[in-house]
Structure formats: C-alpha cells, structure tokens
Amino acid sequence: MTDALVLGAGMAGVSAALMLQRRGWSVALIDRQAPGRATSFGNAGIIQSEAVEPFAMPRDLRSLWKIILGNTNDVHWRLRHLGPHVGPLLSYWWHSGGSRYRQAVEVHSALVARAAEAHAPLIAAAGAESLVRRDGFRVLHRTERGMDQEAAVAERFRADYGVPYRVLSAAALAKAEPGPEQPGSA
Ligand SMILES: Cc1cc2nc3c(=O)[nH]c(=O)nc-3n(C[C@H](O)[C@H](O)[C@H](O)COP(=O)(O)OP(=O)(O)OC[C@H]3O[C@@H](n4cnc5c(N)ncnc54)[C@H](O)[C@@H]3O)c2cc1C
Prior knowledge:
mainly alpha; 3 domains; two-stranded parallel sheet; binds flavin-adenine dinucleotide
C-alpha cells in the first residue's frame, strides 16, 4: 500500500519522496514526463548554502520599468501570457516587502544553512562524490562598482548569517583560474 503520493519528480519531489521513504513511508513519485527533465535539469548545479535571502521581487520603479520594457535578462514576458500569472505575481510582490519578507528570510536562511549537510547523504547514496566540488564558487565583476556592491552584500551575509567569503584581486583570480595562453604572451 502507498502511504504518500508525491507529484513532480524534480529536485523538490525526489527529495521529499526520499525523506518520506527514510521515515518508513511507502511512496509513489509521479511525474507527467521523465524524472528530472524540468527546472532541475537545467540549473547551475550549485548547492547554494550562501543564498540565505530569497530573491525578492524588485519594488523600485527603475527596476520595474526595465522589466516592463524588456531591458533586463532577469525576466522575459509576453502580455498575452500574463493572465494566469497576475495572481502569483501580486502575491510575490506582497511577500517581497516589510515584515512578510523578513519572516521569509528567517525561515529560508535556517533551511539554507543546512543545505550542504542535507545533500551529503543523497550525494553519497548516488555515488556522486566525484561530481561535487566543495571549495565554493567565484563571482566575477567587470567593474569596480559591481565588485564593491557584491563585496558589501557578502560582508553583510558573513556578519548576519556566517556565510564565508573571500575577495580576490585580479592577479589572484588569474592565478586561480589560468586561461589559455594568449598568442605572443609567452
Ligand atoms: C537557469 C537556472 C539556474 C538555477 N541554478 C540553481 C542553482 O545553481 N542552485 C539551486 O539550488 N537552484 C538553482 N535554480 C533553481 C532550481 O533549479 C529550482 O529551484 C529547482 O530545480 C526546482 O525544483 P522542483 O522540483 O521544484 O521543480 P522542477 O525541477 O521543475 O520539477 C517539477 C516537476 O513536476 C512535474 N510536474 C509539473 N506539473 C505536473 C503535474 N500536473 N503532474 C505531474 N507532474 C507534474 C514536472 O514535469 C517536473 O518534472 C536554478 C534555476 C534556473 C531556472
């Protein structure tokens, strides 16, 4: 007999099904297509223990105007497809500010702090150790302004949530990530 039906065999559904199984439940995991072919197929593959604050919907007019005009990579939208998304978008807007957002951050950051630790047994069970790097990831900026803004956020995350980070100079980065030899550079 099945104790639980889990709908959707992406990262969320598979994890939920495995955790239920571990607690002794019998689980049926159902998907309308092959497992792991939707969003979980095409992401960046980072176990984001640094992403302590969920992405809030931008509320400043400048960012919203850029989205409306299609002048950003963040959102791609078409008026004719907007209808069914209006309700969820309004809810996203509502929960992206004030005490509602602070409450979301509180819950989210506590979950995210456990991300690496919670994935470890799944990685081991899948025999996927060799696919996982544990030395973090690098974010590159073309401008000093962008770099300074990112460093300020990183420092806030370190102070508030204990997320470690390092700022690399261009020389240190070139050493850590040597590119191919340029013609005539030898
Ligand atoms: C470009 C990109 C990069 C990202 N990079 C990262 C990253 O580096 N790190 C990170 O942590 N997150 C990242 N994310 C986010 C992460 O990929 C998603 O949060 C995660 O994959 C969502 O998993 P899910 O199981 O909720 O959804 P999905 O993987 O989309 O799975 C949902 C499943 O439900 C099925 N389904 C839907 N409707 C039905 C139905 N009616 N009946 C049956 N089955 C149904 C679908 O077929 C699908 O298989 C990224 C996302 C994107 C788009």
